[in-house]
């Protein structure tokens, strides 16, 4: 799909330099660099509001009249306005017959019906987004005093000066108190903390909480150690922090603002626009020939003009917007039953075309939980001693927000009791050192227990214990350890090393290797089967995460993904579109990604694919907005749900896969309607063109054309409830305007062959050519001829729909839905009722045909079936395409 190209600078944070300066400021210079007092008294709040604004988010207004006008003047609707005015022109200058006025009003009704459906859906989407954008409004405690010197301020006693305030009323300079469980309401600089851990997964995708401190040594904005970002969560400890950004200047809100700047247009909408151009060009090419031929034949140029304008009306599928809108509306209601809420119904068509699904791993593929699989010594044997060491370390770490510590504690808490052991000192886990240590005293022995990642631990281990004997860690032992780790990694397990040392203080050298603990990410039940179905459905799965590469690779191995090639964000060729696309196709795992890198991946993949993106974090907003189908979950952040097109009530790939199948059915029925209707209409026009050259009278009267067109307008609304063959939706459906040409060309010729066969039977079999040329009762015979063409044309059109609606052998291998079948058959009564009920026949210039001619109709229906099935077999074999 074509969408506006995203420039690198369109996803830069406007406050980046300010945040960087404040993160690297000393506590003494913080007030100066912020250009505000630290701590705002109540009497100064109004002044701060005027200077910096409040923490309320700006809301984009919904222009009711402009939106309604826009849906009424969409490209295809403009064509319908021309058709409606044309029919009204015919009404005014052709005897002011009721049928002409009714036809004009019906087209207007179709425009307004489709417009109202689209308008109401846009209004509902806006109202939902408005609710999502206004984030949950909580109250927080702030310091009601100014801090003159942060370095000497007593934060322990600060609770006496706290007052409560709504988060929307926060201003720059406020000193806010945050504790475990709080959702950070605005960007803030930490000035005091105690054991502070923050979940930043909504921004970074990193699953483990990160430690926050007062100083900063990091260079990447989302990794600043002393900055709290809005929409992140305090998972442990407490802090005081100075508000540095509010409202739309918050980092998370800026991502949403940037996402809103992305202009998108659905692939299906582009297809409809191309169809509109095709019809307009066809009308401009064909109509002059018919007008000239009709004028030369009748020498009545006004009559020729009216006849030509009637053909213009017949050529246009007026119900297209109504069918599409109804199709999408019914589809969105069906998707609700699959636990899927569609905010933007236009993307339902795109859901049927998706061939690449990008998702994070946590909560989609896994249950966001890991468990211990084994604890082994250097010989690969399960070891109770290693298990006890690991448990003691996890017990005293007190960091049960860390999934590894939580898994160890959960596994061994019933087996060991550490309450009698005394903790002397500890060094908590750090993302740079990737190790954690505790110094404990058990009895009279002081012992250090350290656990951590393989590379870091092997650098500080110099010995190994085997059966209570200690040996130097030589190359042989190292090889043995590496082989154990390699075997576990191959099986898809995470591993960490446990080491110890008898010491009176914590040191990170000369430790003794105790053993290895292996973990596995718990996959969702049946996720492998779901993934198999997704692959069989022609959809490729790619993992896009801010988490570590190692964790993602392990999950990919367990899932047995098609391709386990992987890349981290910094290795992407972002400045070389061709190379980047090659990287993205070759690999299926992308880790340590920034929000901009996710956007570039989605944008590049869309070059030749229809891409869905499933994300629930603040950092996913840009990618959600840019994707052909942006999908969030009900538990996602408000910003992610705001940017998404679709919201899942359950974060489950099985639900999503079913939604894609539903999307394909909706897409297929819409495509079916377009191709069948356009082919049938062009067949009628081709027949009329041939008739204009062949006969010295009109093959079908203008009133018959309008009446037939009106009947089909109503009948075509049934397309939305037709059944779809399973084999037709096994793979993603693509909108290909080029596939319409052969379908329309072949089938319009077939429809003309049927009508010309009817002409030959009427003209020669029933001698109507002679009867008309003799001059006696010419008007009656011409009217009968036109009536027989009118009846045959309507019957051929409806049976053509039955036969051409499937790529399989119609009636025998594929049958329409019960309601669709009998609904269409009911419209077959229309030409017979109009013809054989005299008062109606007189109004519409119809005359009863020879009764024997009615026996010809079954033969024409059989010919219709033979021609369509033959063409179908050839096109499927040669072009591998039908609908």
Automatic annotation (TrEMBL):
Keyword list, A-Z: ATP-binding, Membrane, Nucleotide-binding, Translocase, Transmembrane, Transmembrane helix
Membrane topology, record value: Multi-pass membrane protein
Pfam families, per the entry: Cation_ATPase, Cation_ATPase_C, Cation_ATPase_N, E1-E2_ATPase
Name by which UniProt lists this protein: HAD-IC family P-type ATPase
Residue span, Cation-transporting P-type ATPase C-terminal domain: 698-874
Regions that span the bilayer: 71-93, 99-120, 278-298, 304-324, 673-695, 701-721, 741-766, 786-806, 818-838, 850-868
Domain called P-type ATPase A: residue spans: 159-259
Coiled coil regions in record: none
A single MF term (Gene Ontology): ATP binding
Stretches assigned to the Cation-transporting P-type ATPase N-terminal domain: 25-85
UniProt GO cellular component terms: membrane
PANTHER family, alphabetized: CALCIUM-TRANSPORTING ATPASE
Main localization category: membrane
KW RNA-binding (keyword) present: no
Entries under InterPro entries matching the protein: ATPase_P-typ_cation-transptr_C (IPR006068), ATPase_P-typ_cation-transptr_N (IPR004014), ATPase_P-typ_cyto_dom_N (IPR023299), ATPase_P-typ_P_site (IPR018303), ATPase_P-typ_TM_dom_sf (IPR023298), ATPase_P-typ_transduc_dom_A_sf (IPR008250), ATPase_P-type_domA (IPR059000), HAD-like_sf (IPR036412)
Localization in the cell: Membrane
Organism: Spiroplasma platyhelix PALS-1
PROSITE patterns the record matches: ATPASE_E1_E2
